[in-house]
């Protein structure tokens, strides 16, 4: 579990022991530490302060989530990020050999203009969390811009291929399945180090045009970091709010057989259409099963953004989401059989 609040650390410390769980803090990196004028001493001192906070709270490690742009040509920034990561890991292990360091990577390398020293950082960290959501943040085919799934199963597979054993991605973040020598190399990170991150939220889009036969929803053109289309044209909505909106609109979501994600379209009296793309416990489980099968059971684990999404006053909803995070019994039996 990733935890931001320090004031409740004691209560969570008791809970984690009771349930045999681990709690890690999360942090980003301040821009003042990454600029050219910062010194290695300042960078090392900041790393020490972060580790001090982790240890003072008795946490089990640190999750690093930096989502500001890192330009392909900004080698200094890339190297400083790697250096700080190294310092944090060294100090974490020195104080607690059982602590863990996790870095959040975008669903595909270089997406959203985040160019890291991927292989170096993966070597430094204990795990890499693949954020396989917001996959429509940079869409290069358009305009017209189209609404689509937040976390399609194809993105799950592509992400594991790119980072684990895969294909290639170009400098602008668009992807290609070609394995030509001129394409950037993929990153052969062990599957055991990869954590699959999935969303417990989705997006709502107001369609400027809608084709009822193809269910194609054209959305406003909102560029993002160079890409002509993005999910910034929509609004993020947690699962309970999506369910409430669909209930009010007297409609239900259906599973798209291609993306293995939920979609729904609400028509109002004026003829306007609102599209919802989201995930349910069933689609989450489908994607986890696909990932486990693809990695032959070697996947390091799964996670979500974020755990406080379900309506826990509705015990069935919360239970359904958490049960979806488990390996389905038939698959677990198969993996156990293959391992024996």
From TrEMBL:
Alphabetized InterPro entries for the sequence: GH18_Domain-Containing (IPR051887), Glyco_hydro18_cat (IPR001223)
Alphabetized PROSITE patterns for the sequence: GH18_2 (PS51910)
GO molecular function terms listed in the Swiss-Prot or TrEMBL record: hydrolase activity, acting on glycosyl bonds
GO CC terms: extracellular space
Domain of life, per lineage: Eukaryota
Keywords from the UniProt entry: Glycosidase, Hydrolase
Pfam families in the record: Glyco_hydro_18 (PF00704)
Keyword Hydrolase: yes
GH18 domain location: 1-328
Biological processes, Gene Ontology terms: oligosaccharide catabolic process
Protein name stated in the entry: Glycosyl hydrolase family 18 protein
Lineage start: Eukaryota, Sar, Stramenopiles, Ochrophyta, Bacillariophyta
């Amino acid at each position: 579990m990733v935890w931001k609040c320090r004031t409740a650390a004691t209560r969570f410390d008791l809970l984690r022991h009771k349930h045999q769980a681990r709690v890690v803090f999360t942090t980003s990196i301040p821009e003042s530490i990454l600029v050219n004028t910062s010194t290695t001493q300042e960078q090392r001192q900041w790393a020490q302060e972060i580790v001090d906070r982790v240890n003072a709270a008795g946490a089990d490690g640190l999750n690093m989530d930096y989502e500001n742009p890192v330009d392909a040509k900004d080698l200094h920034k890339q190297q400083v990020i790697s250096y700080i990561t190294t310092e944090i890991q060294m100090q974490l292990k020195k104080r607690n050999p059982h602590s863990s360091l996790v870095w959040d990577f975008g669903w595909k390398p270089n997406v959203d203009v985040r160019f890291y020293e991927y292989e170096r950082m993966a070597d430094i960290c204990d795990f890499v969390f693949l954020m396989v959501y917001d996959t429509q943040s940079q869409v290069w085919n358009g305009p017209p811009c189209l609404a689509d799934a937040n976390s399609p199963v194809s993105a799950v597979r592509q992400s594991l291929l790119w980072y684990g054993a895969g294909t290639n991605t170009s400098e602008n973040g668009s992807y290609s399945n070609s394995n030509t020598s001129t394409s950037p190399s993929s990153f052969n990170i062990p599957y055991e180090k990869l954590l699959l991150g999935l969303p417990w939220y989705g997006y709502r889009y107001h369609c400027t045009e809608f084709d009822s036969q193809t269910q194609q929803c054209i959305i406003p053109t909102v560029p993002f970091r160079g890409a002509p289309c993005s999910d910034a044209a929509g609004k993020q909505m947690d699962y309970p709010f999506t369910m409430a909106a669909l209930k009010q609109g007297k409609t239900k979501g259906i599973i798209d057989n291609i993306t293995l994600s939920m979609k729904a379209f609400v028509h109002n009296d004026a003829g306007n259409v609102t599209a919802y793309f989201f995930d349910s416990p069933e689609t989450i489980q489908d994607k986890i099963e696909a990932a486990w099968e693809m990695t032959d059971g070697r996947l390091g684990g799964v996670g979500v953004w974020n755990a406080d999404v379900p309506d826990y006053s509705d015990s069935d909803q919360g239970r359904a989401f958490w049960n979806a995070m488990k390996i389905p019994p038939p698959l677990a039996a198969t993996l156990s059989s293959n391992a024996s």
